[in-house]
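[stage:ingest] chain + small molecule (pyridoxal-5'-phosphate)
[stage:ingest] validated
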Amino acid sequence: MSWGSGVLAAACHPGCCSHAPVTLENGPTVNRSSLPAPEHAPEVGLAAFPNPLEVDPALEAFLAGASDLLCRWWAGSAQRSPLPALSVLPEVAPGRDGLSPQALLDDLQLVMDGAYNPCHPGAVAHLDPPPLTASVVADLIVAGLNNNLLAEELAPSLTRLERCLTAWLAERFGFGVGSGGVAASGGTLSNLMALVVARHTAGLQDRRDALVFCSVDAHVSIAKALAVMGLPPTALQAVPVDHEGRLDVDALAQGLAAARRSGQPVLAVVATAGTTVRGAVDPIAAIAELCRLQGCWLHVDGAIGAVYALVPDHAGRVPDLHLADSLTVNPQKLLGITKTSSLLLLRQPQRLAACFGTGLPYMEPSWAEAHGGECGLQGTRPAEILKLWLGLRQLGERGIAAVVDGAVARRHQLQQLLQPLDLELRGGPLHLLAFTPCGLDAVEAQAWSIRCRQSLLDQRLMLSRPLYGGRHHLKAVLGNPHTTSIELQTIAEQVSVSLQALQKPLLPLL
Ligand SMILES: Cc1ncc(COP(=O)(O)O)c(C=O)c1O
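[stage:predict] done
[stage:export] tokens:
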């Protein structure tokens, strides 16, 4: 496998020593022992399990030590690169005896040193923003509670929280009273579950000739879902997009008509609200009308764009989400809820249990309609809903609006800076912008993308390098609230320099 430029050199040291000198990011070599030691970690006396009788000072100190590590890691983010150049792993196998709290923290630090650094202002490559602080805390509490959203008796309050919050969000997206959904570990899983429910609802479980229509720019998780569902690759009907990257409705209408003529059932149409490379939003109202006429399920993959609908000033960027039968939302993307955080919302959430319910003979009956573990593919489930709830409560309506406003403003600014350059810009209404030089063929565009990405990484600016329409692009995802005009201007300058280099004849190889 080729990793392209900006390779992350990874090393797993057999018996790797936590005091070995390590090279941090693209910068200098640092002797590990020179890093400030966490202040709170005790050397001994940490019980393996929490004490059910009294507060354990050693545990409190261990938690404080870990919190200290994390706060320092965040606080040093701007001094490191978004992408560390070298990652040294501590020993992976447990030793004969357990480690002391301090040794555990030292090992943790090593792994943290090699981690991707989303808080760096130049981290604009992917849909992975800095974490929302309250959701980090909620993640810790989730781990500490160790409840299981499989069944109500294993997570009573958290089950109710999940039902109430998914219902509130579904109503907020316009699905109406009685709507709701379930949390899932990632958008891939939400999309898969949506298509499984669509197939079940249509009674097409036995039809290997059933089709799913989506645009050529839809996320790869749709193809993955069909493979998991046992459908052949031909089940995926990829519809062309227009010059703005939106699904071509006429082509969809023709495809649906052809399916009707050939007697092939349509399992679902998937519209995307925010495509992965350029953030395009498919024309959902027109697609919904075709689905209504054909009598087929409309799933909207709003993993990227749906959260815009929570902000009145920006809801127009993703119109008509309420016309879907099911909707994927990924608060882990723009809103920074810690991973994983995805939801599958439905106008009729009871369809989830109708599809996935098997009965849980080893559990007390559900107090409501169905246990959480019967509303989707996952059995044991972490209480991911807690960090979504706490994160949304931390932001409030104004904070959510500020996150979206900032992302849109950064994208506009970068677009203005790049507009005068000899580039093909590919965007949509959201916070993503991809671009490639005009007039290059596929090989030239690939070479340019590798060189330009590396020159940006040398400045600690990380963009991604998607292949789109047969040519490599660079892509900026502008959801990082720490990114300022300075980073955006430097990106534009570096790209401009890379274009000037294209004009110069290449030196002959010696
Ligand atoms: C449009 C879209 N849908 C679905 C997904 C899959 O989400 P996840 O990575 O959480 O599985 C992505 C991921 O980037 C995406 O861009």
